[in-house]
Amino acid sequence: MKLNEKIKEYRKIFNLSQEQLAEKLSVSRQVITKWENDEGLPEIGNLKAISKIMGISIDYLLDETKKLEYPLKRRCIRCNIEMIENFDIKVEGAGYGIKLTQHGLFKDNLGKIQCAVCPECGYMETYIEDTNKVKKLLKK
Ligand SMILES: [Zn+2]
Fold this sequence. Notes:
Layout: H1 3-13, H2 18-25, H3 29-36, H4 44-54, H5 58-62, E1 84-88, E2 99-101, E3 109-117, E4 124-128, H6 132-139
Antiparallel strand pairs: 1-3, 2-3, 3-4
The site of zinc ion (ZN) has 7 residues, from loops.
């Protein structure tokens, strides 16, 4: 995927209008339109800023062999800010976290449930770190 497509797709993933992204980068909206239409390339400074805003590396942005990937850092769906990840959920009175398992008794443990918290509004999102076991279920 080319750089212009990635900029456009990531802008949508983060629910930013061209105006909003332009504002964050201190450029005009027309500049964003140009980049997205592949009529011009961002300068290195802007590329760095895009990489920071979207939480993706410059290497990845520039590598056309790479497909669209969701950014590594989870963002709050309300505040659109980076969430703090890797909290454990503990059941009070028990020393263990909650595990995700397939439906039924004695089924495979699919992974430890972890939690991310938005430092701004406290919104919590749960996820499992290693999705390989879940992916394998898809293939069955
Ligand atoms: Zn939030």
